[in-house]
Amino acid sequence: MIEIDGSEGEGGGQILRSALALSVITGKPFKLVNIRARRTKPGLAPQHLASVKAAANISSAQYKGGQIGSAVLYFEPGQCKAGKYFLGVHTAGATALILHTVYLPLALCGGGESTLSVTGGTHVMKAPCYHFLETTWAAYLKRMGIEIDLEMAKPGFYPRGGGEIRAVIRPCSAVRPLHLTSCPELTTAGGFAAVADLPVSISKTMARRMAHQLKKLDVESHIPQEEWENGPGAVAAVLFRQAPVPPLFFALGERGKPAEVVADEAAEEAVSFKKSGCPVDPHSADQIVLPLAFAQGPSEYRVSEVTQHLLTNIDTVRRFVDRPISCEGSVGSSGTVRVE
Fold this sequence. Notes:
Elements (H helix, E strand, L loop, with lengths): L1 E4 L8 H13 L3 E4 L12 H14 L2 E3 L8 E4 L7 E5 L6 H15 L4 E7 L9 H14 L4 E7 L8 E7 L9 E2 L7 E9 L3 H16 L4 E2 L3 E4 L4 E7 L8 E5 L6 H18 L5 H6 L1 H4 L6 E5 L4 H13 L4 E4 L6 E5 L1
Helix pairs in contact: 1-2, 1-3, 1-9, 2-3, 5-6
């Protein structure tokens, strides 16, 4: 049994999600202690428990320690099977993170096509939003030979939740490696400014502000405005379609948070990426390590910013897969990831 200390690295829920996926794929059981030890409320939160249940559901796994607040989890996977699954969390827990837990086992080991309905939050703090999944994440997977169709049935924001995303995951016989070391000059940007059950003046302000901030770097942009239901909520997003895989940078509104601040947060991340000259954004960098560990051939990619999430995920993958994976570069600076 593989033993993992959840207080190592970034000390959050990513260790749990990656360990669950890797366990199902490799058939190796694990024991995870000090779960989310570096968080304000350590232990399993509802969305993390939802990931445990999702991984157990697709693989008929046995587990112990699956309670809210639990700091220790024992997980022993069974056989992963394709099927129709209804997953989720009753809170505004991130639907994207539940999907991240189960997509690769189903694609590599399911033995057929799977359909998923995942309920919870589609646009919540500290998690990829649905539009990042649809625009950036799915594009990376497609380059690696993993086909996933995504649809947002309805949005869900914190604290209400109530959103739903649907996914069709097709079987993948071989993961292709990635080689992304250069990025063309980014001179144009897209994106959107959306509000859900809030005044349209907020989306207008966000769109104008993002365009203004991007113009300072000679980036011409077209930021359409959108109105959604099932709010309240607001989202500002910037997208660079000229990059090898289009990265989407987004920010979310909160009660008392000015629309200008929301727009600035999205624009600042986009600007930082443009200035780096690297092809891979920091959010994608840690997410693609896991599938590349199973690619048929070596991979190499340059990331605009090395994060603790990336280093933690590399360390977690190494525990399950006997393959050299390295990251050249320090946290906060650009770097290069190599999977031998």
